[in-house]
Amino acid sequence: MAKLSPSILSADFARLGEQTEIVSAAGADYMHIDVMDGHFVPNISFGASVMKSLNDFETAPYDVHLMIEDPDRYLGDFVTEKTEFITVHQEACPHLNRTVEHIRSYGVGAGVAVNPATPICMLEDILEYADLILVMTVNPGFGGQSFIRSCMKKVRKLVEIREKYGCEFEIEIDGGAKLENAEEIVEAGTDIVVAGSAVFGAEDLSQRVREFRQKLGT
Ligand code: DX5
Ligand code: ZN
């Protein structure tokens, strides 16, 4: 059983409020907010003001994914009553422990993401402090890319480590999730599945969320 976090990166930005309400009402557990700066990743998406424009809509809590350099400068901008997690990239944070504590100081869950080429051993000393570990299953920057299956071994490793050391973090995957691979993603031990194009590319958004939830066992 896993939760669903649809990524608004693939939504119709001109109808963002309406579409996020539809997917939330249909059962999305979080709204995944992909922030890209054109430096850490080769694409620019949107910033905190776009996320905050959703505050007056009936949406699921925000699951913020910062694909930006020097995230500490902007963390406060993403804190709202609806912000559940703020996730930063291990590769973008030389003082990761400080950044994680900074996120937690706002009373928000702290997430750490790893790119496909970053091994889990790089997270060894942060796991006990993190609320969420985000395993990228595509190279970050764009929606609609193909799932990199080999990244799933990191999910299995994280499940083992969590059990062995009694850590509490949730495990999320992001990139290339589809109805077709949802079951194998859950079987590996994923707690939260991000899906962008596979949700917002559908004709009927509510129906697609319901189909996903069925595959995820919720
Ligand atoms: C990729 C983003 C993902 C993306 C997922 O850089 O972090 O959240 O929106 O999109 P899909 O599900 O289409 O691969
Ligand atoms: Zn993301």
Automatic annotation (TrEMBL):
CDD domains for the chain: RPE
SUPFAM superfamilies: Ribulose-phoshate binding barrel
Enzyme Commission (EC) number: 5.1.3.1
GO cellular component: cytoplasm
GO biological process, one term: pentose-phosphate shunt
Cofactor note: Binds 1 divalent metal cation per subunit.
Keyword tags: Carbohydrate metabolism, Cobalt, Isomerase, Manganese, Metal-binding, Zinc
PROSITE patterns: RIBUL_P_3_EPIMER_1, RIBUL_P_3_EPIMER_2
Residues bound to a divalent metal cation: H32, D34, H65, D174
Database matches in InterPro entries: Aldolase_TIM, Ribul_P_3_epim, Ribul_P_3_epim-like, RibuloseP-bd_barrel
Residues that hold substrate according to the record: S7, H65, G141, F142, G143, G144, D174, G175, G176, G196, S197
Pathway: Carbohydrate degradation
Cofactor(s) for this UniProt protein: Fe(2+); Co(2+); Mn(2+); a divalent metal cation
GO MF term set: D-ribulose-phosphate 3-epimerase activity; metal ion binding
Catalytic activity from the UniProt record: D-ribulose 5-phosphate = D-xylulose 5-phosphate
Active-site residues, as the UniProt record annotates them: D34, D174
NCBIfam families membership: PRK05581.1-4, rpe
Described purpose of this protein according to its UniProt entry: Catalyzes the reversible epimerization of D-ribulose 5-phosphate to D-xylulose 5-phosphate.
Family of this protein: Belongs to the ribulose-phosphate 3-epimerase family.
Protein name per the record: Ribulose-phosphate 3-epimerase
Native species: Hornefia butyriciproducens
